[in-house]
Design brief:
By secondary structure, the chain is an all-alpha fold. It has twelve helices and no strands. It is globular, with a radius of gyration of 23 Å.
Length: 265
């Protein structure tokens, strides 16, 4: 009997090849001994050394991480409080605010970027680190709220009321009762906010000022000339993301096995 040709597997293979071949290509040529991006002449770590010795590149990494961390913390706190407050509002207000909250995600990045740029220029706010941070916080909040809202819809409304009846103050009920119930949504929202901020280019390009570059704007400004150090930087970012994903998937498995072991005992 002839084996049937599996078109789906071939299609999946080419899709994966299309996504991951460029990443593998960047990693390989980050160790190239020459500047060539087409001919691998030998193994070398010189581009990693040059990357760490290039002040402007290290500053872009610093600003990317700093802005992403601050934007994540602020947007997570604000988004969590807003989502909880919205869940307690009447239906009309909830639907209206939800639609408004979805606008930054539905709008193309260029529209949001130009809007933020015009806002800062209208009020004569000098662009720089502050405007870049404000812009990132603003467009990260909707993603946090979107991640938390489904968890809140699954939450029993009587839990908070029961906590208040048992003597908890409103803030204690929020911290000790509601937040632990929706912590998965909060963590998901924080991770999405961090990645959106760290990865953003368009909004950063229109809201940053002279001398303030994150990784995306720095790479764009260096795209006109061959700079293999960018390959080294990209490789380290890929490695860091891979490690985070592995840890995020391994820790829940460890917790599940420990829980099963405790139940078995």
């Amino acid at each position: 009997m002839k084996k049937k040709f599996d078109f789906k597997k071939i299609y999946l293979f080419f899709i994966l090849l299309f996504f991951y071949a460029p990443i593998v290509y960047v990693v390989i040529f980050s160790f190239n001994s020459s500047k060539s991006l087409t001919n691998f002449t030998g193994f070398s770590l010189q581009w990693y050394e040059k990357m760490f010795n290039t002040r402007s590149m290290m500053e872009s990494v610093y600003y990317s991480v700093l802005v992403a961390v601050i934007a994540t913390v602020v947007s997570t706190i604000v988004g969590t409080i807003a989502a909880i407050g919205l869940s307690k509002s009447n239906r009309l207000v909830r639907e209206l605010v939800t639609q408004i909250n979805n606008l930054p995600m539905l709008n193309p990045d260029i529209v949001t970027a130009i809007s933020m740029m015009l806002f800062f220029s209208t009020f004569a706010i000098p662009t720089g680190f502050g405007t870049l941070l404000i812009a990132h916080i603003v467009f990260c909040i909707p993603y946090v709220m979107l991640s938390i809202s489904p968890r809140l819809r699954q939450l029993d409304d009587n839990i908070a009321e029961a906590a208040l009846d048992l003597g908890c103050k409103p803030f204690e009920a929020l911290i000790k009762v509601i937040v632990p119930q929706i912590k998965e949504g909060i963590i998901s929202g924080a991770l999405v906010a961090f990645m959106m901020s760290f990865d953003d280019f368009v909004i950063s390009y229109f809201t940053t000022g002279p001398g303030i570059n994150n990784i995306s704007t720095y790479v764009y400004s260096s795209s006109k000339r061959i700079n293999p150090s960018i390959n080294a930087l990209s490789t380290l970012i890929i490695l860091a993301i891979t490690l985070v994903l592995i840890i995020m998937n391994v820790i829940p498995l460890i917790k599940q096995r420990r829980k099963r072991h405790e139940e078995a005992i």
